[in-house]
């Protein structure tokens, strides 16, 4: 025991610990600083931010930047549409991608290679913006909420990730289900889905971030339907308006605030505030999914 204690407290171990802790502290600072800087700018008085020198704490505290964004009457309804789009789109994408991935992973499916090649080709070739728009129009999805869901229902990258994970599952687990009389649907729902929870959580995060941040499809298909506008699209319009106002009124961009008094905002402050507003929901959700990135369920599945 004394020998082990001496080994653990040797000079080499202490040097390693110091270097390790130092490296982790530097990594933490490098990772957190950009976010803290943007947060500080969003909470700082816009005209003062132009001077620079804002690091991790605001110099002149204010909530005018957030008041300018949230004064828009449509912002709360747009947030609701974004939440619905993210939840429904993520759930549908994960479920359908997992089902297709399981299908093309089965060795007894004779067309699995052909179907896989057809999916992969779509990653390298596409019809372009105009043909895609014409297709969406002919399908009658312009002016519809489902234009946010159906076109991206199956993500090829997500499909490949899930299929690779399923291919790594021991065949003995799936065979045991068939021996017990389980069909493909029962095997998929009772065995494959529980075992693939880590990769499904990863794909859900990818899909959720995409759905939450997407705004260009709103501009293309639903820009004239304000009831279907999303948070990201409304934020883009606010930023565009702040740029126009800044160009018309000079660098200060004096814009009337909620009370009717002159409240100074700038494109810089609006961009920083938009970044925080758009990032906070994802940051709040990430801790609940992060554990699945490092935790596998294979051991528990094999023992069962």
From TrEMBL:
Question: In which compartments does the protein localize?
Answer: Cell membrane
Q: Which UniProt keywords apply?
A: Cell membrane, Membrane, Transmembrane, Transmembrane helix, Transport
Query: Would the keyword Hydrolase turn up in this protein's UniProt record?
Result: no
The name this protein carries in UniProt is Carbohydrate ABC transporter permease
Q: What is the lineage of its organism?
A: Bacteria, Bacillati, Bacillota, Bacilli, Bacillales
Its membrane topology: Multi-pass membrane protein
Name the GO terms of the biological process aspect: transmembrane transport
Pfam families to which the protein is assigned, alphabetical? BPD_transp_1
Q: Provide the transmembrane region boundaries.
A: 21-43, 75-102, 114-136, 148-166, 187-210, 268-289
Q: Which CDD domains match?
A: TM_PBP2
What GO cellular component is one of the record's annotations? plasma membrane
| Chief location bin | membrane
């Amino acid at each position: 025991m004394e020998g082990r204690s001496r080994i653990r407290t040797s000079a080499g171990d202490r040097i390693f610990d110091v270097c390790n802790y130092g490296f982790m502290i530097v990594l933490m600072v490098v990772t957190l600083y950009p976010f803290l800087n943007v947060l500080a700018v969003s909470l700082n008085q816009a005209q003062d931010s132009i001077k620079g020198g804002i690091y991790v704490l605001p110099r002149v505290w204010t909530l005018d930047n957030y008041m300018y964004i949230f004064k828009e009457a449509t912002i709360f309804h747009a947030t609701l549409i974004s939440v619905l789009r993210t939840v429904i789109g993520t759930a549908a994408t994960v479920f359908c991608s997992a089902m297709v991935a399981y299908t093309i992973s089965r060795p007894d499916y004779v067309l699995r290679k052909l179907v896989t090649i057809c999916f992969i080709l779509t990653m390298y070739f596409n019809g372009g913006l105009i043909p895609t728009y014409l297709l969406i129009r002919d399908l009658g999805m312009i002016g519809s909420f489902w234009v946010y869901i159906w076109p991206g229902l199956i993500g090829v990258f997500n499909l490949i990730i899930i299929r690779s994970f399923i291919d790594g599952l021991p065949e003995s687990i799936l065979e045991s289900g068939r021996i017990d009389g389980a069909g493909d649907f029962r095997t998929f729902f009772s065995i494959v889905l529980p075992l693939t929870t880590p990769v499904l959580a990863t794909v859900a995060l990818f899909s959720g971030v995409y759905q939450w941040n997407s705004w260009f499809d709103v501009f293309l298909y639903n820009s004239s339907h304000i009831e279907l506008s999303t948070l990201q699209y409304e934020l883009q319009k606010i930023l565009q308006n702040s740029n126009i106002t800044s160009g018309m009124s000079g660098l200060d961009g004096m814009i009337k605030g909620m009370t009717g008094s002159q409240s100074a905002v700038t494109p810089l402050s609006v961009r920083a505030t938009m970044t925080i507003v758009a990032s906070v929901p994802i940051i709040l959700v990430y801790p609940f999914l992060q554990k699945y990135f490092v935790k596998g369920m294979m051991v528990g599945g094999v023992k069962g």
